[in-house]
Amino acid sequence: MKLNILHRRETITLTAIDIMNEKGIQSLTTKEIANREGITEGAIYKHFTRKNDIILSVLDHFAKYDQDINKTIELKKLDSMESIRFYFEAYTTYYQNYPAITVVLLGYDQFRYDKELEQKIKEIIYSRSNYVSKLIKQAQDSKLINQDIDHILLADVFIGSFNRLCLKWRLQNYNFSLKDKGLEAITMLLCAFAEKTWRED
User: Fold this and answer.
1) Could you tell me the mean pLDDT of each successive run of 10 residues in the chain, 201 residues long?
2) For residue 155, which of 12, 20, 132, 172 is within the disulfide window of CB 3.0 to 4.6 Å?
3) Which among 18, 190, 10, 158 has a CA at the least distance from the CA of 92?
């Protein structure tokens, strides 16, 4: 019984992501979820108390690999530049295999009108930003990235460029490899801000 409950919660979450991707976040309704799931609206409330709980589950799903990616970088004992590349490669792979989830990535602003959702998305954004900042600072400490650049601002440049590429990918109906273009962009940025000695290697 517990497995069935968990399975239904997951399918409701995935259906919610599909609806948000197809119609926009504001168009998500329990009625639409129920229709697609082939259940009653009342059945949804056996698994989620409120609509907000469904959206919170979507946000949890969006960020479900964050800790795994960070831990993998630590376990692999990659150098700082390789760590940055691996970080963005992991996300491009995730998004390319699951394009619908990028609706969350590009819909941050839609969550700020609800305090609970705003807090959740802030936690995800700041957690990712802080981790990229940490990787960049490590690269600066190793004299691989220009130390005169603020590492927090540089993290924003990397993440902002990545998010912009994801937007372009969606607008062009996923007609290019996000993974290939993403790695190309990150490598270009690394080279642009790297110390001369690293570029010459």
Assistant:
1) 65 96 92 94 92 96 94 92 96 96 90 92 96 96 94 97 96 96 95 72 53
2) 132
3) 158
